[in-house]
Write a structure and sequence with these properties.
The chain is mainly alpha-helical. It contains 6 helices and 3 strands; from the N terminus they run H-H-H-E-E-E-H-H-H. The mean pLDDT is about 90.
Length: about 190
C-alpha cells in the first residue's frame, strides 16, 4: 500500500497534478462531511449533543429570519406580513424559515473543511470566521432571492430553491476554498 501511495505521489509531482489532488481532497472532505451530517441528524438525532444542536438550529433560524425580514423590507422593499417564521406575500406566496434554512449545515461543512485542509493556523484564525460570515451572508442572499422568485415567478420556486440557491452554497464554499488553497496554504 505504501508503495502504491508513493507511486501515485511521484506521478502527481511528475505530471504537476497537485491541483487535482487538492480538488480531490476538497471533494472527499465535502462529501464525507455532507453525508456524515445527514446520517448524524437523521439516524442519531445529533447524538450525543442533541440539545446543543437543537438550540443552535433554533438560534440560527431565528437570526436568519430576523435578518431576512430586514433585508426584504428595507432593501428589496417587498410588501409582506409575518406569521410565526413565515413571510406572507401579496400574491399569496409564502416562505417559511425552518431549521433547514438556518445555514448551520453549510457553515459546519465550511468549518470542518477548513479545519481539516492543510494550511497555517495564523491564517485560519481569521480566514475561518470571515468565511463563516460569507456563508451566512450567502444564506441571507438565498432567502432574499427566494422572496423575489416567490413574488415574480412563483412557478419556478421549487427549481430556484433546489437547483439554484441550494447548490450556490457549494459554489461559495468552493470559491473560498480555492482562495485558501491558492493564496494561504503552504505546500
Amino acid at each position: 500500500m505504501k508503495k502504491l501511495l508513493s507511486e501515485i505521489d511521484k506521478s502527481i509531482k511528475k505530471y504537476k497534478l497537485d491541483v487535482l489532488k487538492d480538488v480531490m481532497i476538497f471533494i472527499v472532505i465535502t462529501l464525507v462531511v455532507h453525508y456524515s451530517y445527514r446520517y448524524w441528524a437523521k439516524s442519531t438525532a445529533y447524538w450525543p449533543i442533541k440539545n446543543v444542536m437543537v438550540s443552535s438550529h433554533e438560534f440560527m433560524t431565528d437570526m436568519v429570519f430576523q435578518q431576512s425580514v430586514w433585508i426584504i423590507d428595507n432593501i428589496l422593499n417587498i410588501p409582506f406580513s409575518v406569521e410565526d417564521r413565515t413571510f406572507l406575500f401579496e400574491n399569496n406566496g409564502f416562505i417559511t424559515i425552518n431549521h433547514g434554512c438556518s445555514g448551520l449545515k453549510p457553515m459546519l461543512q465550511y468549518l470542518l473543511l477548513m479545519l481539516l485542509f492543510p494550511g497555517p493556523w495564523k491564517h485560519k484564525a481569521w480566514f475561518i470566521p470571515m468565511g463563516l460570515l460569507i456563508v451566512h451572508l450567502t444564506n441571507l442572499f438565498r432567502i432574499s432571492g427566494l422572496a423575489v422568485v416567490t413574488i415574480t415567478i412563483p412557478e419556478y420556486w421549487d427549481f430556484a430553491h433546489d437547483n439554484l440557491f441550494r447548490p450556490f452554497f457549494y459554489v461559495v464554499i468552493f470559491s473560498l476554498w480555492v482562495w485558501w488553497a491558492e493564496k494561504f496554504r503552504v505546500t
